[in-house]
Specification:
One of its GO terms (molecular function) is single-stranded RNA binding. The protein has helices at 33-47, 68-78, 83-101, 159-164, 179-190, 198-216, 220-240, 246-253, 260-268, 280-287, 325-334; strands at 3-13, 20-23, 51-56, 106-115, 118-134, 140-158, 171-174, 192-196, 244-245, 275-276, 288-293, 296-301, 309-312, 317-320. It has 335 residues and is α+β, with helices and mostly antiparallel strands. The chain folds into 3 domains: 3-195, no CATH class; 198-285, no CATH class; 290-334, no CATH class. Strands 2-1-4-5-6-7-3-8 form an 8-stranded antiparallel beta sheet. The protein has a two-stranded antiparallel ribbon with strand order 9-10. A two-stranded antiparallel ribbon has the order 11-12. A hairpin with a 4-residue loop joins strand 13 and strand 14. Helix 3 packs antiparallel against helix 5, helix 6 (198-216) runs parallel beside helix 10 and helix 8 packs across helix 9 (260-268). The protein is globular.
Length: 335
């Protein structure tokens, strides 16, 4: 993953009521193996985060330009604005936003990098945690470590897709920390609007898959295999930070009939987007049904519903057709 430009600006919270202050860097970071490893760690952590997917909004509802971020980024890419100035202005706006909603200091990492033929602009506000290290004298020393899992704000932009103008999902950003006001402020800072509801689209895709399995009247083993294939494909795309496509998924589900699931989606008109960002939480819920209440804990694979397990909605009863052997022996001993 070649890094074309990288920089870190520090955002500090002083004591008391003082506002956030920016400590800007004056030059980009030099290339190094550590920086390459940091980019790899950022990608892994970012891909695991709940995100919104969308694009730049041309104007606000009031008809004003939504954010200077897109125009300043275009200026940097065209060569009329240098990377240090572009990233510093971004850091200043991030500092103002963080000061209004959080009380944490952090370092803003901004990266212009490539993955294969694709070019990306990524940034994240990273915080620190106390850690330990062993020095050259084999003594334990304190060390401040970047906490990649604690990203207050982070975004990634696929520059190829943005400039080609053929996608509405080239921009993704985190929205799992700091509450609704911070999330709305971050989207406004980016000038972004959601192009697709990742969790909603993933739920619709899974509903279409369940309908497909029921329609095909597949045996339990085949149903389990296809469910595992779907989850594996979706999880792999999530780890890569890439969307799913119905055509690719259809090929994964049935190599003998690679268009079968795709035709099912098209003929039933589920209204799915061409590209679907996988939502990890929705996928995890689909793999297993779980519940706990009143001392009873139940968990089973989703594909068993309707075969090994039935739900009687009218009487609110769950019928387990095949009691696990260990549980059955316990029940027999008790009786």
């Amino acid at each position: 993953m070649p890094i074309l430009n990288a920089i870190v600006h520090r955002i500090e919270k002083a004591a008391g009521e003082a506002p956030m202050s920016l400590v800007p860097a004056t030059s980009p970071l030099p290339s190094s193996p550590a920086l390459d490893d940091l980019l790899a760690g950022f990608n892994d952590a970012f891909n695991a985060k709940p995100k919104a997917w969308g694009h730049f909004a041309e104007t606000t509802p009031e008809g004003e330009v939504s954010s200077p971020f897109a125009s300043e980024l275009a200026g940097y890419l065209e060569g009329s604005r240098d990377f240090v100035a572009f990233s510093r202005d971004l850091a200043q706006r991030i500092a103002t936003l963080v000061g209004a909603h959080l009380s944490l200091s952090g370092d803003l990492l901004v990266l212009h990098h490539e993955v294969g033929d694709a070019r990306f602009l990524s940034f994240a506000l990273l915080h620190h945690r106390a850690g330990f290290a062993i020095d050259e004298a084999l003594q334990v020393v304190s060390a401040r470590q970047l906490n990649l899992t604690q990203m207050s704000l982070a975004a990634r932009l696929n520059l190829n897709q943005w400039q080609a103008g053929d996608s509405r999902q080239y921009l993704s950003w985190t929205r799992d920390r700091g509450g609704k006001k911070l999330a709305e402020g971050f989207a406004a800072l980016l000038g972004a609007e959601e192009g697709v509801d990742a969790s909603g689209e993933t739920r619709t895709l899974l509903k279409a898959f369940s309908d497909y399995v029921e329609q095909e009247d597949l045996p339990e083993e085949a149903s389990r295999e296809k469910t595992d294939a779907l989850i594996d494909y979706a999880s792999d795309q999530a780890r890569r930070g890439e969307p799913m496509t119905v055509e690719a998924l259809s090929e994964v589900l049935d190599e003998q009939q690679p268009k079968a699931f795709y035709d099912h989606i098209r003929n039933a008109d589920y209204g799915l987007s061409a590209e679907i960002p996988p939502d990890r939480r929705t996928l995890n819920q689909f793999r297993r049904f779980t519940g706990r209440a009143g001392g009873v804990s139940i968990s089973f694979d989703s594909h068993l519903l309707g075969s090994g397990v039935e739900y009687d909605e009218d009487r609110d009863r769950l019928i387990i057709k095949q009691v696990p052997r260990q549980l059955r022996e316990q029940l027999k001993r008790q009786s």
